[in-house]
Structures are given as C-alpha cells and as structure tokens.
Amino acid sequence: MKQPIVLFFLCLNFLWSFGQEDVLEDFQSSELNQPGKQFPMVNSQGYVRFKVNAPAADSVSVSLGLGGSGGTTLTKNNEGFWTGTTAGPMDEGFHYYHLTVDGGTFNDPGANNYYGSTRWESGIEIPAHDEEFYALKEVPHGAVQQILFPSPSTETSRRAFVYTPPGYQKDTDKEYPVLYLQHGWGEDETAWMNQGRANLIMDNLIAEGKIDPFIIVTTYGMTNEIKWGGIRDFDIKHFQTVLTEELIPYIDSNFRTLAHPGNRAMAGLSMGGMETRMITMNKPSLFAYYGLLSGGTYSPEDVKEHDELKLVFLSAGSKENPDRVKNAVSELKNAGVNAVSYVSEGTAHEFLTWRRSLRELAPLLFN
C-alpha cells in the first residue's frame, strides 16, 4: 500500500504546484503610501506585501476591497513586526483595505486614507498597464475647488467639488457644459477626484484633443444612511431635491455654464448610477446625457418619452455582468436610442472600471 499512497501525495503536490506563480521579489513601495513609509509594497505581478508594527497584538490580518472582503493573515516576528503577502495578485487599479488587529478595525499607518465603506479606509494602487490615461502629466491642468451651497431642504450648507478645465480662469467669456458625477455607496463627494482621478483623466483627454472642455460637479449622494445591502430602502426624493433644486441652480448662477439640458449630463458609479437612473427618470427634461457605470440599465420603455435625450452610456467590468449591459444597449439601439456600451477588461466592481468608463464616456458628451 505504501507505493500508491506516496504516488497519491506526489500527484496532489504536483496539482497544487501546477499553475502556481512564483512571487517575484521586486517589491516597491506603493505610490499611495504616506511620506517616508516603505510598506505596503507592490511587485510587478500585482502581489501586495504588508508590514505593520504591533508588538502587543495577538493577531493581525488585512481585509481588501469595498466592505473589507478577502483577507491576508500576517505573521509576527521577534521584533513585533507583522508581515504577509497576498495569496495572489490583485486586480490593477485602486483598492480600499484595512487592518484587523485583535478583532478591531484600524487603518494601515503606512498608507494614505480614502473615504469608502462609510469610513476612511487605507488605499493601495496596483499599477495598471494602461495607467497613462489617469497619470499626472506635464499638461495644462484644470482646477478642483470645494464649494458650499445653500440647501434649504436640509437646513444647512452642503459641500460639492467642482472641476473647471484649463483656461477657465483666463477665458472669461466662454461658457461650458456640465457633468454631474456621482460616487457609490460608502463613498462621498471626494471619491471621483481622489480615488477616481477624474480631474487628471479630463486634463489628459483635453491635452490630447480628444474632448472639448467641460465642468464636472461631484456632491454627496446621501446614500450612506442606509446599510450595505439595503438599497431597496433608499428614498431618492431628498437627494433629488438637493441636486435638481439647489445644486444645479447654484452652479448655473456661480459658474459660466451652458444652462440648458442639451449641455447637461448626469452619470454615476454603482449606487450613484442607481441615483442617476432614478433622477433622470423622474426629471427627464433636466439632462440630455445619461451614464450608468456598474449602476444598472435602461430599457427602451424607460426613455421613450425623453425628448431631450442624446446619449445613454452603460458600462461594467468584465468580472461583473457585462452581458446585461451589452444586451440593454442592443435593445436601446434597436428602438432608435443613441446608446453605447463599454466593458472594462479584467476588472470588477472597482475604480479602474470606473476610471476607464469615464475615459470612454467623456468624448461622447456634448457633441
């Protein structure tokens, strides 16, 4: 019996080893690390290595992704440092993560923080093969400014961020179209400029002559008051009032906009896409361009009486449900609607999907 047992375990070892990738020791500090911090590190394959100083801790692990799914258990050395490497490569692009130390949730002291999962999370960037389109380059740059606009419906002033393209400050006679761009659940109005790098995507597209300049406005979608998985409980009417009756009039009064539906677009990622769909269905005369980025679909029946409509853009990552997006666009086209689908190859419900989606959407707007 010994020989068959030995052969069995040799086969198991071969099968386990087959297809396993040797981890290259070419790790470099993440570009999103805090100044002077070496860890976390990323190698050329997309593996991530963590190192945390917690000498009094009994257990340390890393949770990656929106909501902290997935995990890497770290191992403690004699000096009190906990280290560990992800079991496999991460998808390209930006990811949230946090530490779990003895059951408590903490951020990595080596990484910068970004608002996601309804809290400030650590962030890491896995270099992408096509990262040039959102890279910081030596091109003319637009400005991103914080504004506070009055909101009688919520009895306070609310915050928004406004991207104005290069030349906005100098050419004081020119007016611009506007894209209202919404974040997803767990995020806020900082997401598109920080995690999404929307301003850099715009700067690069403008510099390459691929788009005519336009303004982008991001504001908090009032989504985080509901718990994860409770989307059906979300009531759009409060945010709809803020956006359509308070923010848009403020932007049109305080910025040089082309204040007409034909020069106004709304798009959003994930739950922001759901908000976009609801508001464009309720207020079809306000926007001419709709974009749902991993955020649902429209049917021909949904938009049959939308007289101002010029474009429906639907996107998803290839690891999501791309056929749903493709099929919806095919039905819209057959009904005579100008509709475009985009699938981000190799990505899931994550910011590289949405960065790429904005890159594809922007040249289609305001033509």
From TrEMBL:
GO MF term set: acyltransferase activity, transferring groups other than amino-acyl groups
Pfam families (UniProt xref)? Esterase
Hey, what's the signal peptide range on this chain? 1-19
Q: Which InterPro entries match?
A: AB_hydrolase_fold, Esterase-like, Ig-like_fold, Ig_E-set, Mycobacterial_A85_antigen
Q: Which UniProt keywords apply?
A: Signal
The answer to whether UniProt assigns keyword Signal to this entry is yes
Q: Which domain of life is it from?
A: Bacteria
Against Gene3D superfamilies, the record matches this protein to: alpha/beta hydrolase, Immunoglobulins
Recorded hits in PANTHER family, A to Z, give: DIACYLGLYCEROL ACYLTRANSFERASE_MYCOLYLTRANSFERASE AG85A, ENTEROCHELIN ESTERASE-RELATED
This protein is called what?
Putative esterase
